[in-house]
Amino acid sequence: MSRAAEPFRDPALADEQPDLELTLPARAENVAVVRHAFGGLGDVLDISDQALSDIKLAVTEACTNVVVHAYPDGNGPMAVRAHIDERRLTVVVADRGRGILPRADSPGLGLGLPLIATLAESLELGKGEDEQTEVRMTFNLDGVNADGLVGHGA
Fold first, then answer.
1. Is pLDDT at 15 greater than 50 in this prediction?
2. Which residues contact 101 (CB under 8 A, 6 or more apart)?
3. What is the pLDDT of residues 46-86, one digit of tens each?
4. How far apart are CA 29 and CA 67, in angstroms?
5. CA-closest candidate to residue 136, choices 87, 85, 83, 97
């Protein structure tokens, strides 16, 4: 197996089997695949429609960032892992691209990460054990964010 095809391993979740794990080429059509997978995960969880909508939007934004920014010279892998622990969902979106750096030539509006921060209970950006870029999000499955608000609009 080539390095690009190997699944990403999240050391923080190393002892846990992920509840969802995908490694796909970082292409626009695969963002919809990831979103659909989280819709399926939401179908088996007891969470509100608003909480599922927030999770799907945040994960979509993180994956879109990989597609748009990670590999300016071509394709590379986009990995998504999700782990449920009691009523908390942890999602890690990772790539082996150029990292999260401010860029004047960015094709986006720069609103993706602030949106994710609003939707998720917590947001962490960093490097994984293999130097991959990681966006780690946690969500309270009861629909209450860190500010004590239900969903993102309340």
1. yes
2. none
3. 889 999 999 999 999 999 999 988 998 888 999 999 999 98
4. 10
5. 83
- Name residues whose C-beta falls within 8 Å of residue 49's C-beta, 6 or more positions apart in sequence: none
What totals of helices (H) and strands (E) does the chain contain, helices first? 3, 5
Separation CA 125–CA 92 (nearest Å): 10
Which pLDDT band holds residue 16 (cuts at 50, 70, 90)? Answer: low
Identity at 68, one-letter amino acid code: V
Which positions ≥6 away from 99 have C-beta within 8 Å? 127, 133
Residue 53: exposure state from Cβ atoms within 10 A (0-12, 13-18, ≥19): middle
Token pair belonging to 147: 């500010």
Enclosing H/E stretch for 142:
none
Angle CA(94)–CA(95)–CA(100) in degrees, nearest 5?
90
Phi, psi of 78 (to 5 degrees): -125, 120
Query: How many residues would you count in the chain?
Result: 154
* Residue showing tokens 């860029």: 103
